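To assess whether ligand presence alters the predicted conformation, the chain was also submitted together with manganese (II) ion. Input:
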Amino acid sequence: MMIIMRPGAPREEVDAVIKAVEDNKLSAHPIFGVQQTIVGAVGEGHYVAKEVFEALPGVLEVQRISKPYKLASRQFQEYDSIFDFDGFSVGGTEIPIIAGPCSVEGRSQILEIAHAVKEAGANALRGGVFKPRTSPYAFQGLGEEGLEYMAEAREQTGLPLVVEVMAVSQINMMERYVDVFQVGARNMQNFNLLRALGESRTPVLFKRGMSATIEEMLMASEYILAGGNHRVILCERGIRTFETATRNTTDINAVPVLKKLTHLPVVIDPSHATGDSDFVEAVAKAGVAAGADGVIVEVHQDPPRAVSDGKQSLTPEAFARMVKKVKAVAEAVDRKLVPQHVAV
Ligand code: PEP
Ligand code: MN
């Protein structure tokens, strides 16, 4: 439920409410607004009457959240969440572009592509070092060695790093390198991993499972939020349908539906959604037109030789063309791309 404090309620009253929430075996999630503070109270299903909190000093009203997901819902927080990174934000007017290869393949590969995507307008660098491959015999990623190369790429370009985490045991080590954890489609309902990421304070780019409903996605994101990690960015990356012409089917509806249901930022991944570089630009534009807050896209200097997802990877030149088109679409819907990152 949401415990709405009177405008200007002093900190001691808010603290007393937080304590009452915890005394009732619920967890407290305060949002300190300019005018007003709201304390979210969520817990494991046992019933606590609203009246317990309504009577406390400084409480204006108490509302139950009817959606099964709580902290993710617009009922809990009406305004859009905006998360700030070094040089850009996501969830506000600006639309950041995250680009890079599917996999980090080596030092010179990642350094070269990092400079190329930055030059073309990327605001953050993606690159997998633990790869969730369909076959156990396919390239599994460079692990920590790959993160060393990613860190060097950040040092040279200033681009923050977005890297997929696949296991609880990788979190502490990866946190020394990454700016944003990615949770991949295959791990969207790996609840142990999600709970552990809830304990972290590193933001999470949270991809939709390939057969997950929007509600299942939001419920799963709640595991991270409930742990106190509030910086979750949702990602539509295509779902499985009967259609075989493309790798997945972009659920473009998911973008406005998510924007209605949740205050969390929503980004589009046209690379995995289509599986084909010929369609990536069209779906990137469609996503932004539909209201996406960002784009994550795979770019490789030599797509036919990429160790993973070459077919859907753009060349740096095609990526640069895509950025120009996405910029025009963003402006048509009263948004803008992030001004270019200044090299450090
Ligand atoms: C990826 O980003 O390379 C990836 C494996 O994505 P997804 O989890 O969406 O398939
Ligand atoms: Mn990939």
